[in-house]
Amino acid sequence: MTTPVPGGVASSPELPALLPGMLRVDPDAADPARRGRVRRSVRDWIIDTLCFVVAILVGLMSYDTAMQTDPPEPVQLLDLVAGAMACLTLWWRRRWPVQLAVVVTLLSIGVSSAAGAGLILMFTVAVHRRWAVAAAVAALGALSGLVFYRIYPDPELSFQWMALLTVFGIAAITLWGMLVRSRRQLVLSLRERAYQAESEAALRVERARHLERERIAREMHDVLAHRISLLSVHAGALEYRPDAPREDVANAAGVIRASAHQALQDLREIIGVLRAPSSDDDPDRPQPTLAQLPALVDESRQAGMRVTVVDELAGAGAEPPPVVARCAYRVVQEALTNVRKHARGTGVCVTLTGGPGGGLAVEVRNRMPVGSAGRSEIPGTGTGLIGLAERVELAGGSLEHGITADGDFRVHAWLPWPA
User: Is 398 helix (H, G, I), strand (E, B) or coil?
Assistant: First the structure.
């Protein structure tokens, strides 16, 4: 069974909800004393029952050996009662393993039937606690075992042999518990790494979606801002010249209709990106290239702009890469759109220079308007150049814009053009 976690990643219910990048492989996290009260699973009931039975059997064997010295009956009865209580504490061994291990180990010095419970608790400490704590409890258990055989000597084996067997047995049980702990650490480590990989994959998907939304937003800004600015210019001409000849009004209305139709067409192509994921061969499918630059300039001239183009790329003998060509087209488009918005009536000079190995340089200059001519009648978001700079940087180039010493507003972009 899995439970959802933030970011759409599924995780097992016993796995802690950790931040990506954090790795916790301590099996102590599974200890009910550190997680709070939890309901035992079927597996826990089986293991706890088995441990309880083993503790009783080992305790009875130890009791039988110790009682060969024939102590008084009250001592024998008290030994059985204390041993039974020690075995009952095993049902809480996961909650307080160290505390119970210390108490039962000390109790087992004089209570022979508590030996089985003491060994189970030592194993539990080795599984759920660090090696230093487990070693300390094991040392206490070995010491209590030596004292026990001083009180209840074995009739068949010498004290030296019993001491050796006691130390060897406790060491084996402790090492076994540490081995189980190491295996649990490995399993938890693999679970944590799987969880981290799932979280990172979810973050990558979310990042890809975010970048795609940003790309589509830039696309809509570049395309629609250009078309709508043309519509505004032609509509403004009709507003200021209501007495214009019928032929001019018809031509302006035709341009408005064609621009609106083209804007809808461009919007339809952009929305198509939302419905079909981009491919690696054409990640920016709706964007035109420098081949459509003459049409862009003609549209601006029809809107009344005075645009001069200096194209020195014809002598380069090669075409720039598609990504570079698309980015260069967007630089010119955004610059012309800004001129229509903020510097209407000024002349614009577009210059394209460069070649393979030297990069592609795009420069758009226009005179700064004076007085009321600089007032923009077309609203803008003020983020066009910011988005354009990001687009150029993603293509590996750089963008500069600002007012020159000659009083011109200059937009200059450099884009890499491999040889």
Answer: strand
What pTM value is reported for the model? 0.42
3-state secondary structure of 411: strand
Cα dihedral 87, 92, 97, 103 sign: negative
Of the residues 201, 234, 269, which one is the last residue of a structural domain? Answer: 201
Which are the contacts of 345, defined by CB distance < 8 A and separation ≥ 6?
304, 369, 373
List all residues 6 or more positions away from 195 whose beta carbon is below 8 Å from its beta carbon.
9, 11, 15, 18
CA distance 200 to 7: 10
Measured CA to CA, the distance from residue 303 to residue 332 in angstroms comes to 16
| DSSP-derived secondary structure for 211-230 | HHHHHHHHHHHHHHHHHHHH
- Give the SS3 label for residue 269: helix
Name the domain boundary from 201, 221, 240.
201
Instruction: Specify whether the CB–CB gap between 378 and 229 falls below 8 A.
Output: yes
In a domain, 34, yes or no: yes
For 81-137, the pLDDT digits (tens) are 888 888 888 888 888 888 888 888 888 887 878 888 888 888 888 888 888 888 888
What CATH number does residue 340 fall under?
3.30.565.10
Instruction: Please give the C-alpha separations between residue 196 and each of 1, 147, 363, in angstroms, as whole numbers.
Output: 19, 50, 47
Full residue range of the structural domain in which residue 364 is found: 287-419
Residue 164 lies in a domain: yes
